[in-house]
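Signal transducer and activator of transcription, pasting as requested.
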Amino acid sequence: MALWIQAQQLQGDALLQMQSLYGQHFPIEVRHYLAQWLEAQPWDAIDLENQQEEFKAKRLLDGLIQELQKKAEHQMGEDGFLLKIKLGHYATQLKSSYDPCPLELVRCVKHILYTEQRLVQEASNASSPGSGPVDGTPQKYQQINQTFEELRVMTQDTENDLRKLQHSQEYFIIQYQESLRIQAQLSSLASIPPAERVQRESGLQSRKSTLEVWLTREANTLQKYRQELAEKHQRTLALLRKQQTVIIDDELIQWKRRQQLAGNGGPSEGGLDILQAWCEKLADMIWQNRQQIRRVEHLTQQLPIPGPTEELLTELNATVTDIISALVTSTFIIEKQPPQVLKTQTKFSATVRLLVGGKLNVHMNPPQVKATIISEQQAKALLKNENTRNDSSGEILNNNCVMEYHQTTGTLSAHFRTMSLKRIKRSDRRGAESVTEEKFTVLFESQFSVGGNELVFHVKTLSLPVVVIVHGSQDNNATATVLWDNAFSEPGRVPFVVPDKVLWPQLCEALNMKYKSEVQSDRGLSEDNLVFLAQKAFSSSSNNPEDYCNMTISWSQFNRESLPGRNFTFWQWFDGVIELMKKHLKSHWNDGAILGFLNKQQAQDMLMSKPNGTFLLRFSDSEIGGITIAWVAENPNKAGERMVWNLMPFTTKDFSIRSLADRISDLNHLLFLYPNQPKEEVFSRYCTPPNCMHVFSCRQKCHHMTLLLFISAITNPVHDWNDPMLDTEGEFDLEETMDMARQVEEFLRQPMETQWSGQQS
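Structure tokens follow.
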């Protein structure tokens, strides 16, 4: 309700904008009486592009109707009686309007709340220069709004001057007609008697002379008015172009850059509402000035007066057409990008939007948008305006969509919901380039007219680079291509050029962004984590972060060349860690229970100073998506000597059978999580509850017990520590030991009758 209280304090233009949000589609009385309820609902949690979310929207609609009816029932007295009827009517009206499409209600309310929040924030910034929007650019926003106010005043000024010119010209024409009438009267004097003719001719000649002097002087004045008005329009158009550059080339490009980084897990690019509001203001003022210039042209044609104005008006017409063309073509954007890793024969969606569509009434004749997939070379040719002969690099099903106008939000957009890439045509690859390094893009294009077919626009926009795959095994390498492109591409580049080498700190920023997003954690990669990654990427042993600050890493080092002694790349190893964490271990990472980014020697150095039974969790160097347990214990072969043991890495497959917490609970010799936390304090809340054991099947019980016995057998100090399953460095032999454990697990996962049929018989 706090937002509504603040919204009611708005004044001037902001108050008018707020009031314009409401109407029959959503009465302002509903906003007022249900303010607290409306602001408490999870509107943002509903994805408007997902039709499966419609049931959530329906629940909110039903709740809104119930709240309205409840509010109506509690109204008492004479005034309350009228309000009761009105609220009841609104409940019926909203149910009738939104019951067939409850997602439209969500769209409407989200737009209202967002716009109110923006207006309140802008008002707050204006009154408190020290505070501002979250992005820290209140001064820029304030400057944009000030420029709009300046443009409004200038446009109103030229409108007043134009009316003055029109009135002056109309009076001039009347006087000119009077001059012609006098001339006609003089010509007709020949037919009357001489005495009368002389008398009348004298008076008419005097009036004609006076009028001609006035007409000459007034013609010069009109020409001066026209010239001054044209010069004012020149200044207005120059400021309009400058404002448009700020909004389109700065703010909209920054939004697109945020959208691209969001593909790497960066923060959301934010809504387009404020950008649309700016673009609509631009469109409105450009169109007003265009109409003014055309009216001046009409006046000039109506009364030609020799002078430079005609040439100046031609120049102004070309300028204003160029400005509005740039605005329209630049504001045809992709609101929701298609997936950047695109698998053939798989449905995908995208949304395109024309930010000025509502203001220019494009929706009166809704245009159709077509989607086509094209190659990098075709995209380059397109931007050079070369004839691509309507070439494409594949076939997209359901690739046509009509733009729809949403009256509640004032947006004109096309929602492609069920596109599917049927086939792809690949180009010849260069050198060592693999199919997962080849980039495509989805081209969206449309054609429409504005101003009663006065101007026809053919608009096009390209999606972010897309890597096409045909099998899930290609996903991680394709993701590497996308991550590198999103992180290091420059605005305005030639498609889709990216640097082959980047500074290590730049890559660290991209990796940290991706990791936090995928693991859904506020705990990102620490400086020590990044040093470990640098050591892995550069095969270095330095522990000093500054040693890596000026080092560059190439694309080949990132995801083309295998790490020394391994059969996988740096990215493939890192991506394996991400997959493991997000599927099974994110809670443990958020708790700080997993150190992860440590090598074997670091783990040993850390554990040797701790009591026996202390353990830590680190990511495996040898296996993609593996995590191992290292712990310190007595050396059975030398009394009084201690050593660090490393368990074979667990992978996603292992945790699908039994969780990490349960596995740690099973291992009785693991006592303290590094540095000194009792393991029960850290992991017990994630263990399978004891009371759930009663409902376990016989097979699951047997599985658990067998694993406990197996682990006990290979870790119990009483056991013969010269067992060939242990290597001389205190590691379990990966080929023998855990293969046996997995065989046991696989066996126990089989159906009961298969396992025990021999015994039963």
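Note for the archive: The radius of gyration is 37 Å.
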